[in-house]
Amino acid sequence: MDLELKGLRVLVTAGANGIGRAIAQRFAAEGARVHTCDVDEIALSELASSDPAISSTLCDVSNRTAVQKLFAETLAKLGGLDVLVNNAGVAGPTAKVEEMNPEDWDRCLEICLTGQFNCTRLAVPHLRKSKNASIVNISSAAGRLGFAMRTPYAAAKWGVIGFTKSLSIELGPDNIRVNAILPGLVAGDRQRRVLEAKAQQRGISYAEMERTAFSYTSIKDYVTPEQIADQILFLCSPRGKTISGQAISVCGDTQMLG
Questions:
Q1: Domain ranges of the chain
Q2: Annotated catalytic residue 153
Q3: Which H/E stretch holds residue 15?
Q4: How far is CA 131 from CA 8, 53, 127, 176, 238, in A?
Q5: pLDDT tens across 119-165, in order?
Q6: I need a surface site. Which of 35, 48, 97, 184 has the fewest CB within 10 A?
Q7: Strand 247-250 to strand 83-86: parallel, antiparallel, or no bridges (unpaired)?
Q8: CATH number of the domain at 9-184+224-247, please?
Q9: Looking at the whole model, is its pTM more than 0.85?
Q10: What are the residues whose beta carbons fall under 8 Å from the beta carbon of 189, sequence distance 6 or more?
């Protein structure tokens, strides 16, 4: 299926690792022009070697000055913008609320939620000029379900959905569609670290924590970054032109977070 993405100008935040890298690579494979950013200099260097067509900027999306530089370099490389994928995020702390370091709370929300605002506010004037404009915000299954001992992450990801829905209404008259993706248990280092932290908090083994996590899903398998990327590519293609304001789960039917 030709998704008609050739030449599409795409910015993917946190695109040097994990989900973001899969998204950037999938867009590039379809002929899109892709720019990305990350805080990991080594990963950015590796991406430049493996995928030289994908340009990049070192950037922390919670830093507005750095985001201004990111957009200056993105526009210089791409000559405009059709798609913004707000992927940057952190797992945040695993702790009871009364034991949590307030700075860890702040940092989680600054990246996972405010970082999306920082990028979106600069993207919108350029997206208005596009004939196929999309914003995709990465939320989480934690954006629709409670998540004990992960309150800052859940609060941020619920916020992403509210941000997405409100933007879809605000930007609809400009033909800019806005959607959120809610991944479940995603294969990769971040998910492993989260499960390890929760296992330690509960005093159980990693294997037991993993079994508990999958006991709340209908499909007992990890979501891959590539599956998330495929959903995003469809939303950003002309075939997805009337899909907006949606919070789309890619989670194996996760019914609870333990």
A1: 9-184+224-247, 185-222
A2: yes
A3: none
A4: 10, 23, 8, 9, 9
A5: 999 999 999 999 999 999 999 999 999 999 999 999 999 999 999 99
A6: 97
A7: unpaired
A8: 3.40.50.720
A9: yes
A10: 18
